[in-house]
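Journal club side-thread
Mid-discussion, someone asked how the predicted structure for our own chain would compare to the paper's figures. Pasting it here so we can look after the session.
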Amino acid sequence: MTVAASIFLITYIVIISEKFNKAVVALLGASLMIFAGILTQERAVVTGLLCLWNPH
């Protein structure tokens, strides 16, 4: 849980700083979550598709 929170916070801070492209930073953060074993690749894809399907 601590690793996931750290990755999330670092990703969020870098996005807020606007020094790098937001999409690239978000993809790197998601990739780190997958490589760290916090999130499976299947779960990441399903979550992404649900966000596209239900825009509310």
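Post-session note: The CA atoms of residues 28 and 52 lie 19 Å apart.
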